């Protein structure tokens, strides 16, 4: 009996305030979709880090015949200097950082250069003798590249030390800024959602103040009076969370995996599985905000 009464009250409330309910749904869709994008952005940054940090290397370029660095004042790197560099790479100070070392000769460097520049006219004007010898170092923890890079700076026989991490750090800094921007926008829209839910509930309570007054007089508890209003807002939030989840999964499948991943193949991307792990959070956040907002708004406006 009570359940049927509450259900009837919910239907009446949604019918009377259909426009406001639709507004709550739409704002909830936008805000939760942005929240979902924030979660996916975080996951994308982690995915790219896992992909790229496993592939980056620190490269020690040795002095050549025409090197002008101060550490190359004695000319081309000697065999003794190479042996010293190799000994340093195996030393206890670097043992915890270096995973594997590869020596790249001039000929090997030239082959790699031709491979990478096969469509460029520049490859026709470069010879193997112009390419630098180098040591390419795989790291146990790629994020600690500075330790190895700094160790060989200004070392005799070493022209320069380069790491792809330097480029990746700037890339991930940009991605983190974009991620924070999406989170900020999501927080703003969630705040709008909270205000809209509270306003909707207040208007609904005002238009039904006669019914709630009668319920109070016949001894209905505060919770029983408040429950239909809270459930109305939570139903609207649940519809919004459902639409936001569908939109998030669709964007992930058709835009990220269907288009972006096929056009830009230089890294891995989030997939539908990642989007589905975000969906429960959208419902938790949406229902939580709607329920709490409605409850707080009713504390004042149901007093008779």
TrEMBL record:
The lineage of its organism: Bacteria, Bacillati, Actinomycetota, Actinomycetes, Kineosporiales. Its main location: membrane. PANTHER family: CELL DIVISION PROTEIN FTSX. NCBIfam families: FtsX_actino. It is found in: Cell membrane. Keywords: Cell cycle, Cell division, Cell membrane, Membrane, Transmembrane, Transmembrane helix. Belongs to the ABC-4 integral membrane protein family. FtsX subfamily. This is Cell division protein FtsX. The keyword Chloroplast does not apply. Pfam families: FtsX, FtsX_ECD. Residues 184-302 form the ABC3 transporter permease C-terminal domain. Residues 56-161 form the FtsX extracellular domain. Forms a membrane-associated complex with FtsE. It comes from the Bacteria. It is a multi-pass membrane protein.
